[in-house]
Amino acid sequence: MKNILFYGSGNISSSIIEGLLKCGYKKKNIFAYTRNISTRNKLKKLKINSISKKDLLNNGHKIDIYVLGVKPKDYKKAVIEILNINQAPNLVSLCAGIKTKNIAALSDKLKVVRVMPNTSCSSLNGISGIYNHNFSKTNYVYIKNLFKKLGEVIELEHEAGLNDITALFGSGPAYFFYILKVYEKRINKLVNNEKLSKKIIRTLLQGVSDSIDDDKTLDDLIDEVSSKKGTTEAAIKELKRLHFLKNFDAGIKAALIRAKEISEN
Fold first, then answer.
1. Which residues hold NADP(+) (predicted)?
2. CA-CA 20 to 30 A from 144: which of 42, 155, 183, 184?
């Protein structure tokens, strides 16, 4: 089992760490370096080794894989700091919009693979896009299989596809959380119990998830719930009148455009 250091431990990194622990990755092989106090406290609860800059300088040679989880604007500084610790690091970049060629340009000894996961990795239901710039085959397979334990993995031949991954799946959970605010508001009026309300929403989503079948289209599933001149038909008709799907797709398109903008800057 390889030693992994999360350099910058924001929400995505924390989600990956939680998922790794759930699928049996040993705590002694997971390290994190972060300046964020609240993140340190979260890692402490998970009993993860949150190391200091001094520890990093003294023990960086023991790290097999560096996971770059800093904000995109901070990536250069972070990579240079890692290179000062290890001259030829294996680097997994989680930085949205930062192309692997820009990272690799900082050192000809740097090995880079880019992964765009989402926060559902924490529950082992993540979706991650992966693009290999110049990892060795062995290390690439290791990282790919690691993320497979956290959910589904989409391998990409072209890095540009990661923009779509970001717009569809990286941001995806937030779209559904946003829609669920309508449900939460109405359920709270019925039960007046926030904890029960969230449990009901979880049960609803689990039921929807379990209903998705390889042999049935989404239209088939809608038809199974609908009845002629019934409540479901009335709701779907109103959503169509409001161009709900078109507007929802426009939101995803806006995310894709922004992902491309970040990538080009």
1. 34
2. 42
Helix locations, 86-118, DSSP H = 100-104
Domain ranges of the chain: 4-160, 172-264
Sequence-separated (6 or more) residues with CB below 8 Å from residue 91: 66, 67, 68, 79, 82, 103, 110, 111, 112, 113
Q: Which two tokens stand for residue 253?
A: 């398109």
Give the domain 4-160 fold. Answer: Rossmann fold (3.40.50)
Instruction: Give CA separation, 65 vs 91, 109, 135, 259, in Å.
Output: 6, 14, 11, 26
> For the CA atoms of the chain, what is the radius of gyration?
21
Q: What is the pLDDT of residues 165-192, one digit of tens each?
A: 999 999 999 999 999 999 999 999 999 8
Residue 138 annotated as part of some ligand binding site:
no
Cβ contact 69:92 at 8 Å = no
Compute the average pLDDT of residues 91-109: 93
Class of domain 172-264: mainly alpha
What's the token pair of residue 81? Answer: 């700091």
- Does 45 have pLDDT greater than 90? no
Identify which of 119, 63, 110 has the alpha carbon closest to the alpha carbon of residue 91.
110
Q: pTM to 2 decimals?
A: 0.86
